[in-house]
Amino acid sequence: MAEVKTVAVIGAGIMGRGIAHAAALAGCRTILEDLLPNALRKAETEIRANLDKAVELGKVSAGDAEAAFSRIEFAGSIDEAARQADLVIEAVPEEMESKIEIFTLLDKICKPTTILASNTSSLSVTEIASVTYRAKRCVGMHFFNPVHKMKLLEVVRALETDDETLAAAVDLGKRMGKEVVVVREAPGFITSRMNAMIGNEAFYMLQEGIATAEDIDKAMKLGLNHPMGPFELVDLVGLDTRLHILEYLHKTLGEKFRPCPLLAQYVKAGRLGRKSGRGVFEYPDAAKTAN
Ligand SMILES: NC(=O)c1ccc[n+]([C@@H]2O[C@H](COP(=O)([O-])OP(=O)(O)OC[C@H]3O[C@@H](n4cnc5c(N)ncnc54)[C@H](O)[C@@H]3O)[C@@H](O)[C@H]2O)c1
Predict the structure, then answer these.
(1) Which residue's CA is the closest to the ligand 1 atom numbered 25?
(2) Residue 137, CB-side half-sphere exposure with 13 Å CA sphere
(3) Average pLDDT over residues 10-30
(4) Of 13, 52, 152, 155, which is most buried by a Cβ count within 10 Å?
């Protein structure tokens, strides 16, 4: 198995910027790309701030943080980002059409040996990989938010993923300091399937007026020992992302995943969570810096 040395990350949103941070700290040359110049600028500022914070907390030495930051390049085009990569991680929104468009393009641009990974939270990596001529070199790498802090990486083995590709994804995850679980592909893998169910039920409770959002969160934290309440968490994840996941799980796994109408209504209203300044709760400071 050849070690991954250069990583390209496509999409510099919540997840892409975190993946770039972790890949650079793991010693990889890292190229981050986004359609929106503003998203790249925001990613640069945020990665810098998170590295500085890690130094302040004594988690990373100042030298390592500086070296990591200098390993990150911000690319203006997918061509520039992906051409030299040993592994590309796609982190664009959770829509099959977008993933397919990116993988079709990447398959043409990248070296034949390059591994194509998707950070999808729920979609079929087999279906995404089917548009390429290298399905055996496609894999799911499902990171968690915030990537630089969360310990888990779910590596998703699609139908055609070969052993070498799987081993390279697991190895990269470990070098990034993650605990890795390997999952055979199924909608929502382990974590998104479970989490979507809990989060959707919380919206139904809110819709039915059973309790306030604050109290539902409080009950889950203090009664069930969840580190975050379901609403605090969905605001972090993004309500649009959660809705996309639920729609897919509903389509593939059935009625029990039907998205709560209140969640859909919040998304229609532009209440997407922290990133838009308002989700279930309000984040006035985030709104000022939103893309
Ligand atoms: N948000 C989470 O907590 C979380 C956790 C795990 C996995 N995921 C998955 O990660 C992926 C990204 O989610 P996110 O929350 O980072 O989304 P996001 O909306 O924060 O960021 C997506 C970024 O992709 C960019 N983009 C869109 N189309 C593009 C293209 N064609 N080329 C380049 N850039 C493009 C957008 O400009 C945006 O900056 C999704 O598949 C999501 O399901 C999200």
Answers:
(1) 11
(2) 20
(3) 97
(4) 155
Give the nearest ligand 1 atom to 120 CA: 41
Structural domains in the chain plus CATH codes = 6-184 (3.40.50.720), 191-289 (1.10.1040.10)
pLDDT over threshold 50, residue 291: no
Cβ–ligand 1 distance for 128 under 6 Å, the answer: no
- State pTM to two decimals: 0.91
Half-sphere exposure of 240 (CA within 13 A, CB side): 16
Question: Where do runs of H (alpha helix) occur along the chain?
Answer: 14-25, 37-56, 62-70, 78-82, 96-109, 125-129, 163-175, 191-207, 213-224, 230-237, 239-253, 261-268, 284-289
Distances (CA, A) of 250 to 96, 154, 185, 253: 15, 21, 16, 6
